[in-house]
Amino acid sequence: MEVTEQDNIILDQFRGDTNATVEEIRDAVEMLDYYEEATDEELDTAAQRIFDKLQIINSEYMQWFELLLAFVFAVIGYMAPLWLLYFQVKMRQLEMEDEVMQFQTIIMMLMRIERVNVEIILEWLERYSNIFKPQITKCVNNYEAGAWEALEAMKDDVSYLPLIRIIESLQAAVEKIPIKDAFDELDSERDYYQEKRKESNDRLIKRKGMIGKAIGFAPMVCLFVGYLIVPLVFIGLTSMTSSFETMTSTTL
User: Fold this and answer.
1) How far apart are CA 115 and CA 235, in angstroms?
2) Per-residue pLDDT reduced to its tens digit, 129-148
């Protein structure tokens, strides 16, 4: 470690100097306190060792694959936030589907109970809501000022179509239409969304299975390509090059 530390001192002095000679390095080594009592042979050995290290350092340059890796990582780093947002949007859509299906279940249980009105339904929806809780809470707070206007304001704040349909049914129930009649198509809509969600889950499971298989076979493919195909191609190209050189020399 001490020798390496002394070598680094000399390397820092001559780094980037492609015209440096062994004699110049030997003179610099001789000036170090560490080699104060060293013999000429030890100085020559140290100078030659440092010179070899300096040649390696000065001949270092950026490889093409390093530039390619930097570009790939730059693209990944630049696109990662956007991909994360896409993932969050997809997960939020699944959560919204689950929450609306939960709303539909709550409404189906309440709509057949006597003396249940739209305000009670909104209070129950608010109690079990998560994603749409701010919009429903705002509607409940403004309900006394005007039921239709509060529901219309909530419909403007919501962009999810299935929930907008529920809000429109609640608006119909506000107009003295029985709640049971306002949600007469709720059973069929709920069955439709359940089948749609089941199909989406099946596709997601298949996609995960394909990704898992690809990840599972990736090590074997890399091993096969890295240890068999690439060496064979390299040997073939080397043999072809040597054969062409032999033919060229023979012709000349």
Assistant:
1) 86
2) 888 899 999 999 998 888 88
- Which residue matches tokens 């990582």? 73
| Domain span at 123 | 90-197
248 alpha carbon, distance to own chain's centre = 53
Q: Is residue 35 part of a domain?
A: yes
Length of the chain: 252
Q: 142: which residues sit within 8 A by CB, 6+ positions away?
A: 149, 150, 153
Residues ≥6 apart with Cβ < 8 Å to 143:
119, 122, 150
The amino acid at 94: L
For the chain, what is the domain count? 2
Q: List the one residue out of 70, 136, 79, 128 whose CA is nearest residue 101.
A: 128
pLDDT tens sequence across 95-117? 888 888 888 888 888 887 878 88
How many angstroms separate the CA atoms of 17 and 54, rounded?
9
Tell me, what amino acid is at 197?
R
